[in-house]
Amino acid sequence: MLITQMKDKETILSLVDNKKVFIINCQGCMEVHFPEEEAKAFQKELAEGGNVTGVITTDYICNPDNMKLRLKKYEKAIADAEVILVFSCGVGVQTISDYLEDKAVFAACDTIPMPGFQGVTPLQVDCGQCGECYLNLTGGICPITACSKSLLNGQCGGTKNGNCEVDPDMECGWERIYRRLAMVGRLDVLNCPVQIRDYSTDKETAKKPETEGN
Amino acid sequence: MRITELFDKGEFVISAEVGPPKGTNIDHLVEEAKTYLTDVTAVNVTDNQSSVMRLGSLATCKVLKDNGMNPIFQMTCRDRNRMALESDLLSAAMFGIDNVLCLTGDHTKLGDHPGAKPVFDLDSVSLLHAIKCLEEGHDIAGNELVGEPPKFAKGAVVSPCSDSVDVQLAKMERKVAAGAEYFQTQAVYEPEKFIEFMEKAKQFGVPVQLGIVIPKSVGMCRYMNANVAGISIPESMFDELKADKEKTKAGITGVEISARIIRECKPYCQGVHIMAMGWESKVPDILKLAGIV
Ligand code: SF4
Ligand code: SF4
Description:
The structure holds two protein chains of two kinds. Chain A is an alpha/beta fold.
């Protein structure tokens, strides 16, 4: 689960720099929370300046075939624009900039993972795609995303009043894990061998072995 | 000298903590340690304490050792990945520094480099495991070391007065299983809670040093109650600190309280660890008043 959060207006305006702009909104994806209202209001303001050549609101621009098909109708508006402003997660922006390689493609949003934002976003759980799921050792609560330090072997010393040292409004993930294990009578799994992350299977590193040595 | 040898002999082990400065001059630190920590068998050196960047723990340990003291190298997992941690352990062993205290470490967001990357590649448990691997002659990835493997006294920490004490005990058990040979505790202000904790912890069969942070002032205690994990200071102690302002300012109240806590807890633990935080000069008085030197 990801959240896209609009960059502040000044930043976006300085990227557009009064040039002709085509806007792409990616919405409807269940994996990413999108700041719809805020984006709409900002784009309206921008359009009043008369420099917007077109706006498309679509979904799954991260799928190149789908995205190309959707953009077809807007060929002229895209050709007229000097800047493409994309309101989507980082994957969407990257797919667009790959496709429109001769345009200045800018991300209007920051993509952030969800932990610490429970209640703000539609879902309460998250997976960090760590590549070797620990849920069976942690009562079904993900230690990677529920603990601010992604600890695998238990609670750190920073818990205060059951909450996390990093975010006092967030319940400590290991407090939750311990409670759940106690509830289901599985505290004995805490006696499992020492757990050590294998970053060679992590989503960050798994796909780019060629960076070794750089 | 490994402090586990002292525990094995049944000694009540006294240690104290020093924090390296944010700079390169440690003459003052060394002088204070030499003057006031003479009755202390080992001196912990903190590792970028509270996530504030400072002079390194290992380098400071080396200087203390060169000055005839017995350092305990504190290592957190916040700033180094497993390769850097293992490498620093080998460096420590080469310097003859053979006491290590393993901590997960505070998060980077709490310190003076909030934008720094928090590492936490290992945690306190897997760091203990890494040390055990080195002692067995191979690194954590299973690659063999060349020559004589190092040998450390492997320490860890625990919070006996945490409001999550059962979760802390579970973690303590995991640390023991991973190789922890002694524990130092977070500051204790409630002897009853500590004693209760020790009743449960003694099943693990590892020595525990009672942690002491000298209560310097009402303000400091209020701050700790509000912000420091695993610490709760009872109201009666505030009354004590407020009763005679001059005495508290002179540090006498803090010394008395610390000595009293040590006396009350001593029968239940195997040593004491004093975190003086700038009040190193009070350490001899505390030890004397507690009747342990
Ligand atoms: S443990 Fe790993 S795979 Fe399992 S939910 Fe958490 S991040 Fe995802
Ligand atoms: S307080 Fe809990 S959630 Fe926060 S870092 Fe420590 S163990 Fe993880």
